[in-house]
Write a structure and sequence with these properties.
It is built from ten helices and twelve strands. With about 325 residues, the protein is an alpha+beta fold. The protein folds into three domains: about 130 residues, Phosphorylase Kinase, domain 1, CATH 3.30.200.20; about 130 residues, Transferase(Phosphotransferase), domain 1; about 55 residues, no CATH class. The chain is globular, with a radius of gyration of 21 Å.
């Protein structure tokens, strides 16, 4: 009987020349002490991706699912089974094998700081599993927790989202979906947009507030402003910008003086930390989520820790600490 432990999983080499593939094919016949490919560590390095490794292997043999962070577009927060410090997001797409390379090349071409960074991918039983850098919190958590945002935070979220919409527009593309669940936050407060892999080509004549998702962004903005009801008094600039979202052009919106209020992602950092605590608690109570199994009690992750000036101590309330 063949010892399966000595067999390396078949790999789809995409974006490599034939000599590179031949050399790696020869080396793959040698015994390996580490059969499971180690993913690229998640960092905030926004350099473009030059090639992709797409493994023909079941990704759930490599990663352990921990929680669903999006409902309508299933994104799974997962942990590498061997390298436990590696936390990732996994998105599964049904796709025919001949289309895999084209889709991965499109993702590479659309690499931009507003979109999560693709680390690697797996093709298994007719589905492509995209392994993204981890994003634990969505804007939907802000709405669910009714955490009030201020004008600076709102401007940062809007400016970042509009940057992504404009980048895709300049490529002749648009997001298929824009919702509170597809606007993501990481523990540093960076804003990212999910769904670049499902963006679609669109002609200039068909670009409008509806197709560019400006109408959807206006809906999200109203919801965010409602979280501060009774606590935040919105200036005339904010109210005017909300009205302009569905009437003015994208370029005009990007020049609006309200967006100058946006500083940087640090304004959302504490919010992301605190929402991570809330999200972990809510997900733990959600019976639909089977894989979230915190090893430490939530009482250890209070707001007091989030306010600590030292980032090393603040990490104690970051959601992935629950899984270590």
């Amino acid at each position: 009987m063949t010892d399966l432990r000595t067999k390396r999983p078949r790999t789809l080499w995409l974006g490599r020349d034939s000599s590179t593939r031949a050399e790696e094919s020869r080396s793959s016949t040698e015994p390996k002490t580490e059969e499971t490919p180690k993913p690229i560590p998640a960092t905030n390095n926004r350099d473009g991706i030059t090639h992709f490794n797409c493994y023909e292997e079941n990704p759930w043999g490599v990663y352990e699912p921990r929680a669903k962070i999006c409902r309508k577009q299933p994104i799974t927060l997962a942990q590498h089974r061997k390298h436990r410090q590696n936390i990732v997001n996994i998105r599964c797409l049904p796709i025919d094998r001949p289309q895999v390379q084209s889709l991965l090349e499109t993702i590479r071409r659309l690499s931009h700081p507003i979109f999560p960074r693709l680390l690697e991918s797996y093709y298994h039983t007719g589905e492509l599993h995209l392994i993204w850098e981890p994003m634990e919190i969505t804007v939907n958590y802000i709405l669910t927790a009714r955490w009030p945002v201020n004008e600076t935070e709102l401007a940062y979220i809007l400016r970042s989202t509009l940057d992504g919409i404009r980048f895709l527009r300049d490529q002749g593309r648009a997001l298929a979906i824009l919702e509170a669940e597809t606007i993501l936050l990481d523990r540093r407060g960076h804003v990212r947009l999910a769904g670049v892999e499902q963006s679609y080509q669109i002609s200039a004549s068909d670009m409008n507030a509806e197709t560019l998702k400006l109408t959807a962004l206006a809906t999200i903005t109203r919801s965010l402003m409602a979280t501060g009801a009774g606590q935040v008094r919105w200036s005339s600039k904010v109210r005017a910008f909300l009205e302009n979202l569905t009437t003015k052009s994208l370029d005009e919106l990007m020049q609006d003086t309200f967006l100058e209020a946006a500083t940087d992602e640090r304004d959302l950092k504490l919010e992301a930390y605190s929402l991570a605590i809330t999200a972990a608690s809510e997900m733990h109570r959600d019976t639909r989520i089977q894989h979230l199994k915190p090893r430490n009690g939530l009482h250890q992750f209070g707001l007091k820790s989030a306010l600590a000036p030292n980032d090393n101590s603040v990490k104690n309330c970051f959601i992935h600490r629950l899984y270590q």
